[in-house]
Amino acid sequence: KQEVTQIPAALSVPEGENLVLNCSFTDSAIYNLQWFRQDPGKGLTSLLLIQSSQREQTSGRLNASLDKSSGRSTLYIAASQPGDSATYLCAVDTGTASKLTFGTGTRLQVTL
Amino acid sequence: DAGVIQSPRHEVTEMGQEVTLRCKPISGHDYLFWYRQTMMRGLELLIYFNNNVPIDDSGMPEDRFSAKMPNASFSTLKIQPSEPRDSAVYFCASSPTTGGKNTGELFFGEGSRLTVL
């Protein structure tokens, strides 16, 4: 059974810092990996989707990497801003039509 | 597009009552998913549909839970009878296909927060 772990569970950084969020998964036979953002009381917004054949994806200040063999992914956020404060979740797709397994998330707070 | 629309946003009910949650997926999306989120268990997939047909309901916790998708623009998740341990946020999500293949990208609604007293 696929298990997804995110470390740390919570993180607080001052504005402007670069930061890395970590995600690990136990079964490397994945179809893709996604990073989501969840604001309090809201749904999830997809940030980046990395196919199993890819090593990384970039969108603006966000960069996600994928190392299937080691079962790891990182989400790098450059020049953090208070608006980045949210919970970030990673999810792996085992290839059965988006049957995602989610991690428990990292709650990020960016302070002024 | 308005995105995935869920109703109600909040529901408070008493144990034993029937609860019906509703979802309107994004037009043209062929896949629809129901997830449940709790503090203890995180996000769990309950059931998903492809072209209105239930494909995998192995995540539905008990027979008290049922889901239907009568047409491409509407789905319901029903709990009957409800119990306090069903209290959670229930999310609906939809996903498009390209060339007949699921893209893997999910679009979530804002969720229905259920409290069973």
Fold and architecture overview:
The complex is a heterodimer of chains A (112) and B (117). With 112 residues, chain A is mostly beta strands. In chain A, 0% of the residues lie in helices and 57% in strands. Chain A contains no helices and eleven strands. In chain A, the strands form two sheets. In chain A, strands 2, 4, 5, 9, 10 and 11 form a six-stranded mixed β-sheet that branches. The radius of gyration of chain A is 13 Å and the shape is globular. Chain B has 117 residues and is mostly beta strands. Chain B contains no helices and 13 strands. Chain B is globular and about 45 Å long. At the A-B interface, strand 4, strand 5 and strand 9 of A face strand 5, strand 9 and strand 12 of B.
Give the helix/strand layout.
The complex is a heterodimer of chains A (112) and B (117).
Chain A: E1 4-7, E2 10-14, E3 19-25, E4 32-38, E5 44-51, E6 56-59, E7 62-67, E8 72-77, E9 86-93, E10 100-102, E11 106-111
Parallel strand pairs in A: 2-11
Antiparallel strand pairs in A: 1-3, 3-8, 4-5, 4-9, 6-7, 7-8, 9-10, 9-11
Chain B: E1 5-7, E2 10-13, E3 19-24, E4 31-38, E5 42-50, E6 53-56, E7 65-71, E8 74-79, E9 88-95, E10 97-98, E11 101-102, E12 107-108, E13 112-116
Parallel strand pairs in B: 2-13
Antiparallel strand pairs in B: 1-3, 3-8, 4-5, 4-9, 5-6, 7-8, 9-12, 9-13, 10-11
Notable characteristics:
heterodimer; A: 112 residues; mainly beta; 6-stranded mixed beta sheet; 5-stranded antiparallel beta sheet; 11 strands; globular; B: 117 residues; 7-stranded mixed beta sheet; 4-stranded antiparallel beta sheet; 13 strands; 56% strand
Secondary structure category of chain A: mainly beta
Number of strands of chain B: 13
Strands of chain A, count: 11
Radius of gyration of chain A: 13 Å
The first-to-last residue Cα distance of chain B is 36 Å
